[in-house]
Amino acid sequence: MLAELGNILIAGIKFGAIYALAALGLVVIHKATKTVNFAHGAFAMLGAFGSFLIVVHWQGPYWLAYLLVPILIGIIAALIEFLILRPLRRADMFTVVIATVFLGIALGEAFRLIYNTELLAVPGMFVGAPFVVSRVFVTKETLWVIAGALVTALACVMLFHHGKIGRGMRAMASNVRGAQLCGYSVDRVYMFAWFLGGALAGLTGVFVAPITGVSVELSIAVITAGFVAGVIGGFDSLRGAILGGLLLGVVESLAAAYVSSAMKNCVSFILLFFVLMWRPEGLFPERVARRV
Amino acid sequence: MSDKRFGFAGLGPTVFILICLVAGLALDSYPKYVLAITIISMVIGVALVVLVGLGRCITLASGSVMAIGAYAATLSMVHLGVPYAAALLLAILAGAAAGWLIALPGTRFRGHNLAMVTLVFQSVCIILIREAKWLTGGAEGIRVPPPSIMGWRIASDSDFLIVIGVLSALIVLLMTILVRGPFGKNLQAAAGNEVAAETFGVSVPGYLTAAFVVSSAAIAFAGALAAPRIRILDPDSFGVLPSISMLAYPIVGGMYSVWGGLLGGGGLRVLPEFLRPVADYQELFFAGLVIVVVMFFPGGLVELLRRGSALVFVRDAKRGSAPIPAAAASPIAAAAEADASQVLLRVEGVDKHFDALHAVNSANLMVPVAGIHGLIGPNGAGKTSLFNIISGFLEADQGRIEFGGTSLLNLRARDRIRLGITRTFQHVAVFGQLSCLDNVIIGRGRNAVFHSMQQSFEYFIDGPGAVAARREALVALQAVGLVDQAHSLAAALSLGDQRRLEIARAIISEPKLILLDEPVSGVSESEVEGLRQLLLRINAERNIAMLVVEHNIPFVAKLCRTMSVMGAGRIVAEGRPAEVIAMPAVRQLYFGEESAA
Predict the structure, then answer these.
(1) Among chain B residues, CA nearest to A90
(2) How confident is the model over A114-136, as pLDDT tens digits?
(3) Cβ within 8 Å, pair B112-A231
(4) Is the pTM of this model over 0.95?
(5) What is the nearest CA distance from B118 to chain A, expressed in angstroms?
């Protein structure tokens, strides 16, 4: 019984770590630029596709995928910011959401055209028998995904909160005018936020590829999970996004095991609905320092 | 503008579908099939104009709503043996229910949250249909029984085309009536400026819920019409990607008119038939098309065509100068001379705290019948808080506010219009996407959802109610000097003219009191004097009392007969403008002058 629960929790944390990474990318872009990037899932799908190209198609080493893909997807994201989002900067949220939704579709379709298949399989980075600790199975791959995703996520939080460029993004987030007056360039900060968000999405794709393979459906799955995890975390809190991702992964895993596998997909709906209706500030909102 | 403007133009979309139907009867079997499906897409496009265009709600759930309609009809035919006509009605009900369900969260969120909620609704619906194998046949699908209406078996391509065409024309007619009438205008107002809409009795949640219900019912109906044509229903043909494609219909076609939905839906559905050789690139092309439209042609195809035709046919520039009936042009009430000694609005001992800040401190205020009373004070004095308490946007902690003997304390902002109180806004709050005429018509009040739906029918046939409303609106526009702009979009006016438009909207309901929130802020020096004279004239001709909050003291002093000065939450002075301004307490407040020593 307990071992079963252990296995379920570990599977949940593995997915949760990936969701956290997806959510983090969305939140970074939203926090700095006030845009919710509905093409985020498509970025992750392109990342998974990049991983397939490097590892399977060109038989390259796996570490190269982890290194190159985030940078490439980051550059694509920054380019998209430049070409599409920048001209729309004065438009309202309605227009921007529509633009990113269809951008996601366009990217997915571009992938479908390049590689005319439904599903591409990608092997894991590690093979070999799992460790067994009192009937709880843990593979090296699982450990790698959990550790890798969480470490990257935390590093990102550090960068955002302590790095120089992070300060620019936080300044933009709280007051665009004020940040401009202090000498931060909107264009540069926005572009970097998109680069960082895109890189995180690309990395999400590399981590998730061995589990789900590469397909157009992946993009919807990633955007849904990332968005829900972000909302749970408060959408403007980076730490909240990580916690939200982990929570979503674990709850989904539990629901799949103890209720039904169809239920797994409804969990995100129920969580999203309840959090939005009753705690729109999220379960883990950023602490706002109040000094009197 | 001819008085019959509504009648014929409004029938256009319906007639267009009927022409498609008749012309289509001459086609071969496959084109007939394509045409039938295209007409269904037109219905969906028009339905999405209501929700996405007028209501500005992004929905990614259209596929699931269509599935709900298709399955509701099919399952009731298969499992309950219901005849097709009844099954169609059931589909409409199921769609309306689904729309209401989505609206529960849908009216609380906008933008990305709404998009996400609808996306998840879509996903869950399709999962449920796939999982409930015993009912729906699951992923393998379910065969739709051949339909018949009153003993007529619908079997041939022509039969289908006729049924789909006629019923679609009917539903598009209904939606056209709603879109072009007060319902559509009020919905646009609700989506465009919530605060102003609520002030004039347009309930924002009410209208958005109605938009979800109406559009979902129509989409579900379209699904039920399509079901027998598709023959085998399976959940995956109503997935997320079709939903997103449907969202493209109103955007590409043009979001603000029935024609936009019609052209967008029809065009995007039929285009792939001509793009066969490059079928692979279709989806990419569509997604790119939407992005291009959003970036460069926000008005969509309809706007492009309109601009194109404006180049070809040079319109009569004076189109808007409608003759105003002579009798009505004169001021409505030179009624019994107002008794200025009578109190219209009485504010007594009103208190308001924000945490530690005592924003309003037992304030008293009085506006006489047909009087003009000013409220001034330095920044942070509590004027705006007091004003918002009177207008119903803030609740007082304690105190009494009486208007002609009725207490205003527990009334919502939108209930005040019935008592005869209207207002203007510090940051102009006109409905930019509506014409000046329609802006002013909304000011008449009586904007409850069902009432506006009924009214829409009256407007469609240009009944006496519609004519009267338009005439009243023109008179109000005349009074503020905007009658030439009656048909211009409010967003296109200058700031000063937008302020005039707000005044027209505030006086059309013949109120007893107008609350003017900084009526000249941001207005050019030359227009300030014009607005002052306008307000004085309205006050004199219509006996409307005014309460003015304003920073421009010379303006207030010349406009008002009495005024109050606030400082640190208290009323520090009261009286005639000249006397008040001379008071030491007031000079102290503004200039920090020591009392005349």
Answers:
(1) B295
(2) 777 778 878 877 777 777 777 77
(3) no
(4) no
(5) 10
